[in-house]
Amino acid sequence: MTHHVTAMLDSYPKDLGGVDKQKLAACIQSCFECAQTCTACADACLGEDMVADLVKCIRTNLDCADICATTGSILSRRTGYDANITRSVLDACRATCKACADECGQHAGMHEHCRVCAEACRKCEKACQDLLSALG
Amino acid sequence: MTHHVTAMLDSYPKDLGGVDKQKLAACIQSCFECAQTCTACADACLGEDMVADLVKCIRTNLDCADICATTGSILSRRTGYDANITRSVLDACRATCKACADECGQHAGMHEHCRVCAEACRKCEKACQDLLSALG
Amino acid sequence: MTHHVTAMLDSYPKDLGGVDKQKLAACIQSCFECAQTCTACADACLGEDMVADLVKCIRTNLDCADICATTGSILSRRTGYDANITRSVLDACRATCKACADECGQHAGMHEHCRVCAEACRKCEKACQDLLSALG
Amino acid sequence: MTHHVTAMLDSYPKDLGGVDKQKLAACIQSCFECAQTCTACADACLGEDMVADLVKCIRTNLDCADICATTGSILSRRTGYDANITRSVLDACRATCKACADECGQHAGMHEHCRVCAEACRKCEKACQDLLSALG
């Protein structure tokens, strides 16, 4: 599932600096998946007849898509690594994924797209947390 | 591989309007994969001792990452579909993926990350072309 | 207004290759302004009681924000210039700005944010067209 | 300078919830300016003959451009406001702008683009800090 992410980490020309490569790959993959899923969930909410009840969900989806794409990109870069940037962005991504999982989770019984999206957010929140813990 | 993309298309609340769902899912997935791969390839090039020989490659990677992320997001939206926007963005994405595949292809023998990246760009170029053809 | 954009073009270390610097700076600036304005307009539409009547407007705003941000970034890069990429992305940006200006224009009488946004989209559409013409 | 940002905040249909509108507008504007400037600085560094000495600068510029664009977009949204998301993203943006200002500042004597970019990063770092303080 994380084939291309792993292939790129494996071909990085310098040392990866002792990072847990499996947790890094899982986090990058989760961020890109969550960005796509949140973008699609915002749009699916927009397609619902009851869109007026879903405006907070749409907004949180848009925020989550943005920070996940940014976090996935920053984690994909290994040259000139900066632990402070990595930690603060992972922390923002984790907080936003948690907020989005909570919000989508409230509509998961009624809207399948919110159920799938809450799952993707929860997975990404955990992947950010796992990587943060591994960074020490 | 395209599990979450397909799950979101399947849970879209309205009709998808006769689009070829498999080609659409493949194109969305290829766009996000290519965005990640190009971001990582730009960084791997930056990590090479011979970075001075790779500046055009880095620049094209950055452009390709940007347009792929945008195209993947636009394709993920189905509400208020506009064929003109879809076609022109797919066309720009296809052209940029071709340019990036050609550029990375020139370094594929020397740098494994460029080989993997050229492959991702070629796959995304083809997915854009296939979707454009299916749109009629 | 385009002070920082111009300052960066002026400090570019190599020749800018005969591009019309004023039109380039105006287009970069318009793209970033339009990205911000469309992001804010999507959100303002989401804040309207009649959000259900504005779903196509929100969707087009999101597409327009994405392609404008990408185009503004690609135009900001001058190293390893590729005319094909530039033209195809400018063309997609122009088409999307036109679609968004038309859509927002329909709500401009009722919603001030749509009036301001239609203006930003029209300005960006023209800046893309002007730069495309200057590129020959 | 922040004309279009302010025009959009002024036309937001609901109450802005007691936020300091001037500090909010200044921060949104600084984020988008910094995103453009960092994108251009990464490219100008790539255009330098001594690019090999600037790889950490390029990488930090790319990170800073990403988080600034994301923060500017999230701040532009007012519907369904979430203080936790706002604070954590502002914090990541501030940390990254500081890191980028420090890195570009080291090359400011030699490269005018790094001088201009360090200034934009410092301005954005301060705007994020000011808004964080105002949020309480």
From TrEMBL, chains A, B, C, D:
Identification of the protein by name: Four-helix bundle copper-binding protein
Organism from which the protein derives: Arthrobacter nitrophenolicus
One Pfam family recorded for the sequence: Csp
InterPro entries referenced in this protein's UniProt entry, alphabetically: Csp_YhjQ, YHJQ-like
Annotated Gene3D superfamilies: 1.20.1270.360
